[in-house]
Input
Amino acid sequence: MDIQSASVNLSQARLQEDAAVLVQSKALDSIKEQAAAVEKLIASAQPVTDPNLGQRVNIIA
Output
């Protein structure tokens, strides 16, 4: 393999690696946004205060 083709192959490999890192970075940003939204939703949830809730199970339905 000559130097020119090795250089082209190396350049293409770097480009693919850079693209993969960029995609992973965007995915990580998206996951962080989703996690923040879930944390906000959990923090805003009201605890169940009804003591009778969950005491009976409807087995006929």
